[in-house]
Design a protein that fits this description.
- The chain has 327 residues and is an alpha+beta fold.
- The protein folds into three domains: 2-155, Porin chaperone SurA, peptide-binding domain (Triger factor/SurA peptide-binding fold); 161-179 and 288-319, no CATH class; 180-281, Chitinase A, domain 3.
- It has twelve helices and seven strands.
- Strands 4-3-6-5 form a four-stranded antiparallel sheet, sandwiched between helices. The chain has a three-stranded antiparallel sheet with strand order 2-1-7.
- Strand 5 and strand 6 (274-281) form a beta hairpin.
- It is elongated, with a radius of gyration of 33 Å.
Length: 327
Amino acid sequence: MKSSFINFLNLLAGASLFFSASAAWGVTIDRVVAVVNREVITQSELDEAARALKNLKPGEPATASLNPSESSKNLEHDLLNQMIEQKLLQQEAKKKGIRVNDSELELALKDIEDRNHFPSRDAFKQAVARENVPWDKYVDDLRNQLTVLKLMNREVDSNLLITDADVQAYYDAHPEQFQLPEQIRLKQILVRVAAGASPEEIQEKRQKAEEILAEARKGEDFDQLIEKYSDRTERRSSGDLGAFKRGELTPEIDRVVFGLKDGEISPVVQTDLGFHLFKVQVPSGIRKQPFEKVKKEVEEKLTNEKRTQLRQKWLNEVWSRSFVEVK
């Protein structure tokens, strides 16, 4: 039982400490605002949930921080719908005999305790108290949340089936989503400028770089120009700098080379090293990430989409066979 229940706890990962169902309490003159099958939702319950949503203190009117407006009415309408839905789900769980026992509840409490780095249960309780929520109410709300998770796992997640063929089909149909970052390969001729060079020396080096560029644009082989004009280090590597993604080069180089087509030679680019000429090689075709590398990512995406669809379909069925009246 413990190992299977861990699956439900995983759904809590990344969630905040306190569930939306936890709320401060208050006393109002009750009236029924909704009937859900044979159960009612009262105005005091709605106000209580509204106070929790707005992070108000116990006894503070739920409308204290809001001006009467259309948005306020919409917020109350949405909140009431959420409460009705939660009531329907709890009723459905009870009807199907789904419950969370004490050991499962304790496992969930310990999980939240660990995730929030509380040194003890007392520290956990103190944190809950600072939110103006009674501990017993917090625990009851947590049990209800876990019961709903169990219900959804049984009614929705058990029907989830994403096959390898589904994943492959999505991968094949959406190549643009798996394209590798734009990448080019560069060859370089560098006319170096010594540190501390005079303005005259710098101008002389620039002139030399411009003359090399003129030769290249007349059709001289770039590799031969590398052999002719580059220093020994660059000649050993044939001027090959390797492959680069956009943003990996210095801004002044990046702006120039990523605007060139395959085989084009850049204008002269000046950096602290001197004057550069670059020849660009662009891989042909769309380069996609390998299927095996993105398979898990695609499977998770399709699973989440299908879970959302199945959940909404199932919820619609629950609503359709229930009696719900809003007063």
